[in-house]
Amino acid sequence: MNTFEWCNYDVESRQAEQQDIPKEAAEKFKPYFDENGIFSCVNIAMLPNELRQYFAGTPVRALLECQMIEGGVAAGFIGFEYNEYARMWKSDEIESLSFTAEILSTFLLKKRAMDKLQVVHLQTLEILDNIDSFVYVIDKKSHETLFLNKKAIEFFGANKIGGRCYEFISCEDGPCDYCPMLFLTDSLDHVAQEVYLPKRNLWFKAAVSRIQWTEGRDVCLLHCHDITAYKTK
Predict the structure, then answer these.
(1) Topology given in CATH for the domain delimited by 23-119
(2) Where are the domains of the chain?
(3) Residue 29: pLDDT over 90
(4) Do domains 23-119 and 131-231 have the same CATH topology?
(5) What strand order describes the sheet that includes 219-226?
(6) pLDDT tens digit sequence for 157-188
(7) In terms of C-beta density within 10 A (0-12 exposed, 13-18 middle, 19 or more buried), how is residue 89 classed?
(8) 131-231: what CATH class?
(9) Pairing mode, if any, of strands 62-70 and 73-82?
(10) Which residue of 44, 132, 158, 168 has the fewest C-beta atoms within 10 A of its own C-beta?
C-alpha cells in the first residue's frame, strides 16, 4: 500500500487508490530491480505491458524506485515519478533516492517493528493481569521486585514494585529461609513447591522459573496460587 505521498501542486494524488494492492501485482515489479535494489525507468511507454498498464490513466512518464531492505528481504520501496517527459536519471539523483531508502530502512522499518513489539507487550500484560494467581518477578540476588501482575498489585499494592519481596510478601526482616527461589540450582531452572507464610498465615503453591532479563540479571518468575483453603480443611 501507498503509506506516504508528496505531490507537486498540479499533480493529483493517487494514494487513496493505491491501497491493498494485490501481492501478485506488486511482485511483477520485482525482477526489474537491479542488484542494488534500484529500478530505473526512463520511459514508461517502454515497459512491458504487465507493468505499463499499472500506470494507465496517469501522467507518469519516467520512474525511479529504490527498495528498502530489512533482514535481506525487500520490505518496501521509495519511488519518484516524473510527469513531464521521458528522461534519464542522473547518478546523483539515484544516489540521493538510494540513500533516502536506506535511512527509511534503518529508522522507519525499525519503528514499525517496535510498534508491533509494543502490541505484543500489552497483550502479554493483559494475559498476566487476568490470571487468578499472584505473578511477580524477583531479582534472585537483591530480592528486588521487578514486576507484579494485577492480582498481586491489588493484594500487596502498586507501590511495592522496587521493594524487597520478603518485606511485603512474607513480612520478614530478611530473605526467607523457605523462599522457593532457594530450590533452584545451576542445573534446575524450574521448581514447583508449596510454601507457608507464617506471618500472613497463607499457603502458596509456588512455581518459580529463571527467566532472561536485561543487564544479565539473575531473575526469577514466580507464579503463586493461594491454597490456604485446601490446607486448613
Answers:
(1) Beta-Lactamase (3.30.450)
(2) 23-119, 131-231
(3) no
(4) yes
(5) 145-148, 134-139, 219-226, 202-211, 190-197
(6) 888 889 999 999 999 999 998 888 988 888 88
(7) middle
(8) alpha beta
(9) antiparallel
(10) 132
